[in-house]
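lol forgot to send this yesterday, sorry. C-alpha cells for the thing we talked abt
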C-alpha cells in the first residue's frame, strides 16, 4: 500500500493571524509552499493543513465559502499520544484565541476535546488507549 497524503484545505480570513495562532501551538510552515495567499502547515509526514485566503480558496471551488462560525463544514480530528497531550494542545489553542465548542468527552478508553480556531474551523483532539486500538 502506498502512503497517501491528505491535504486539508481551509479558507481563512486573516492568513497572518492564522499563522501566528498555529505558531503559538508549536507548528511551523513549509516556506516552499507558503506565500501571501496560502500557508502550508505539516501536521505529520502524510497530513498537511493548507490555509488559504478566501480569494485563493475560490480558485478551487465554485461553491460559496461556508462561515465556519455558524455552519459546520468539516470536523478535523487529530490523534494525540496521551490524555495530557490532548489537554496541552487544546489549552494552548484556547490561550491563543480559540474557543471550546463543547465539554471534554471522557469514555475511559477514549478521551477527547475540541476547539474552534480563529475562523471557526473545529479541530478535535483525541487520545485512545493503545491496547484498544491494537485490539
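and heres what i got for the seq, position by position
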Amino acid at each position: 500500500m502506498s502512503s497517501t497524503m491528505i491535504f486539508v484545505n481551509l479558507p481563512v480570513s486573516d492568513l497572518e493571524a492564522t499563522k501566528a495562532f498555529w505558531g503559538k501551538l508549536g507548528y511551523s510552515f513549509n516556506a516552499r509552499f507558503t506565500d501571501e495567499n496560502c500557508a502550508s502547515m505539516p501536521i505529520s509526514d502524510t497530513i498537511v493543513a493548507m490555509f488559504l485566503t478566501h480569494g485563493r480558496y475560490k480558485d478551487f471551488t465554485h461553491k460559496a465559502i461556508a462561515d465556519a462560525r455558524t455552519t459546520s463544514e468539516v470536523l478535523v480530528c487529530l490523534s494525540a499520544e496521551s490524555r495530557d497531550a490532548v489537554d496541552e494542545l487544546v489549552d494552548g489553542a484556547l490561550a491563543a484565541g480559540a474557543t471550546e465548542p463543547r465539554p471534554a468527552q471522557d469514555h475511559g478508553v477514549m478521551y477527547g476535546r475540541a476547539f474552534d480556531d480563529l475562523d471557526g474551523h473545529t479541530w478535535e483532539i483525541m487520545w485512545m488507549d493503545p491496547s484498544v486500538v491494537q485490539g
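The first strand starts at residue 6 and ends at 12. anyway ping me if u want another try
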